[in-house]
Amino acid sequence: MVVSLAAFSAQAADTKKVDVLLVGGGIMSSTLGVWLHELEPDWSMMMVERLDGVAQESSNGWNNAGTGHSALAELNYTPEKSNGKIDISKAVEINEGFQVSRQFWTYQVKNGVLKNPHSFINSTPHMSFVWGDENVRYLKKRYEALQASPLFRGMQFSDNYDQISKWVPLMMEGRDRSQKVAATWMPVGTDVNFGEITRQFVAYLQSQPQFTLSLSSEVRDIKRNDDGTWRVSYVNLKSGDRQDVDAKFLFIGAGGGALRLLQASGIPEARDFAAFPVGGSFLVTENPDIVNRHLAKAYGKASVGSPPMSVPHLDTRVIDGKRIILFGPFATFSTKFLKNGSYMDLFGSTTSHKRHADAARGGRRVPAGPVPRGPTDAVG
């Protein structure tokens, strides 16, 4: 009996208490961490990451398109309504949100939190490219509608083969001149390395005495305490040691691992979330003879009935200071929710309630093609 009480007391004494617990070491958690530290510098904060470094999953520069999403090229943000008009409201909303991100990053550069802007953001023109009479008509209407917003001033439209060839010579090389094509060109687009932003944000947080980073640590359980705080239990994957943390505020920024943690938390909203992993891989080249003939993030138009994430890209990227080109996506499939996840992720996420939710969603809309998780999911 004495031994049992002693063991219980030791476990209670080992429970760490923090104001903020961030689960996941990606762009979402790191951004929130920097923001909260700015507002409440005295708050204690902890970040728990399953891998042995931050920004190694979805935020990694090789695992996303790196597009500074400002709706300059993504045609799914500007649908054509039944009356023939182009709805630009979503595009304006997306663009405004990205401008806020840029202002936030600029502020962090001025304060020394982020170093060398060219290490994480680079000017890269954004292009929408279409072919066929109907798509050319749509793109011209889209261009004209976007001129109503100052956010899209400076965008150019052309259906002239020679002009488009000047913008993207690699894309037009060998193309039939009789084919109807059109493009919009926005020179003020950007390529963003979210992994680099994440690493710099976390490096700054690590310099603060109130912050703790725990790597190779996998969250196994989340419970609500009687006082409203959260008890999070995690295991160090190298030592096998288990640790409990009580947090006043809990943020789950775990990407593909978030669903399981939401389910563990017991919040009612988690019952209505479902996930189905479908991926996309991109071809990659670093050949300077090819890379130097294309400087743009060029987006096509998804086929009718296909999800917007299946849009073909020819993307200029700048990763670790080096220019590359991605082309794709090509559909892949895995039952993993994360590249470094388990093949049992899909099956482990399924409950009877969620199977009903999945079926209900599927009945409302069944996509005609795969939904890519992001570029280079299967690129070695």
UniProtKB/TrEMBL annotation:
Domain of life, per lineage: Bacteria
Pathway: Carbohydrate metabolism; tricarboxylic acid cycle; oxaloacetate from (S)-malate (quinone route): step 1/1
Keywords: FAD, Flavoprotein, Oxidoreductase, Tricarboxylic acid cycle
InterPro entries, per database record: FAD/NAD-bd_sf, MQO
Cofactor requirements of the protein: FAD
EC top class named in words: oxidoreductase
Catalytic activity: (S)-malate + a quinone = a quinol + oxaloacetate
Enzyme Commission code(s) on record: 1.1.5.4
GO MF assignments: (S)-2-hydroxyglutarate dehydrogenase activity; L-malate dehydrogenase (quinone) activity
Span list, region Disordered: 355-380
Entry's Gene Ontology BP terms: tricarboxylic acid cycle
PANTHER family documented for this protein: L-2-HYDROXYGLUTARATE DEHYDROGENASE, MITOCHONDRIAL
Family of this protein: Belongs to the MQO family.
Name of the protein: Probable malate:quinone oxidoreductase
Taxonomic source organism: Ralstonia solanacearum IPO1609
Biological classification of the source: Bacteria, Pseudomonadati, Pseudomonadota, Betaproteobacteria, Burkholderiales
